[in-house]
Amino acid sequence: MSLSGGMDSTSVLIRLINEGYKIDCISFNYGQKHMIEIEKAIENIVYLSGKGFQVKHKIIDLTSAMSIFHSSLTNEEIIVPEGHYEETQMKSTVVPNRNAIFSSIIYGYALSIVAKEDVNVKIALGVHSGDHAIYPDCRPEFYQSLESSFRLGNWDSERVDFYLPYVNGDKVTILNDAMKSCQDLGVDFDTIFSNTITSYNPDNRGRSSGKSGSDIERILAFHKVGRRDPIEYIEPWEKVLQNAITTENNFKDEEYRNRLTKIQYDVTRNSATERPFTGEYWDEKREGEYLCICCGRKLFTSEMKYDSGCGWPSFHTEHEDANIEQIEDRSHGMYRVEVKCSYCDAHLGHIFNDGPMNKGGKRYCINSASIDFMEE
Ligand SMILES: [Zn+2]
Asked: Whose CB has fewer CB within 10 Å in the chain, the N or C terminal residue?
């Protein structure tokens, strides 16, 4: 397997250990500015070895070949861009043909193991679909095509396969898988992930600004699985997270404007309130689930809904995975507590203490415009 020292390949590593493979890790030194990732990879190998999981690790030096390439990841004269990971300026972080080069070397090594040890070999890589917009060499078609080419040009190639467990997933898929592997193996998730780095422009202490595209994707993934990223950032986690959410929302604003109706946009993005008894769901009684209109997060179910008579959909409880955020709101000369979707910052409504006592006494007063109803 290719072990970069980032979170994707590290998750592959613990998955492979959990699946019982005998593992050879290869890390590439290609002159990357974030070379510290290789030190992180070594730290994890040492940690896992202390837990009784032995893996081989080789560091391959490609600096002389790849230092002639043009990329912001390797070239001191080009600055690594900040911003959203799907923005076009992130293309400067592409290292030309990188995955093909790495795969070629690993493929040659895999065939060597076949020859020496008379075993079948899988080449495991942590590529995932979240990378596809900017990194076309992470697409499944690319690996299918590589595999066909390698097979055409090599003896014994039927004994080597690519294994891409995350190719159709994203960083959230990866973290969920890693949590499961860590639990199965009895290793500490936070220790493993504190020994990873995703940033392309860490400072001299290895800390990330949290502002490069890859950082933002990582930060949002940790937030979405309900965890705090255990690595150290230059700023406190709350600030780093807020910046990532804001960056994501600015990037998505155009999509929200196109997809949402005017009232849905005004309510969720600008904290407007729909007029009572006018929304789609205040009198909704069918069974089903209520999702955030912006990000699709499950917020409530029909069992949590009740008739409060106020003219807005009312719920006494939130879904256990909803993680709704509560914020003091002193606007309009009133003291109220605003509720927001913590995943996408959508304004949902307010929460009051006049709900049904036998259900905990809360009333989530939610705009119909903030939610989408899925009938069961
Ligand atoms: Zn949301």
From this structure: C
Maximum pairwise Cα distance, the chain: 78
**How are beta strands 160-163 and 121-124 bridged, if at all?**
parallel
CA end-to-end span of the chain: 43
Query: Looking at residue 133, what is its pLDDT?
Result: 64
CB contact burial 155-194 (16+ within 10 A = b; e otherwise): eebebbebbbbbbebbbbbbbebbbebbeebebebeebbb
Q: What is the pTM of this model?
A: 0.80
Cα of 214 from ligand 1 centre, angstroms? 21
Separation of CA 309 from chain center: 40
275-306 per-position pLDDT tens digit:
999 999 999 999 999 999 998 889 999 999 99
How many angstroms separate the CA atoms of 139 and 204, rounded? Answer: 33
Measured in angstroms, how far is the CA atom of residue 28 from the centroid of ligand 1?
A: 38
Residues with CB under 5 A from ligand 1 (ion): 292, 294-295, 297, 341, 343-344, 346
Q: Which domains does the chain have, with CATH numbers?
A: 7-252 (3.40.50.620), 270-375 (2.170.150.20)
For tokens 């690519």, the residue is 162
In the predicted model, residues of the chain with pLDDT beneath 50 are: none
Backbone angles phi, psi at 192, to 5 degrees: -55, -50
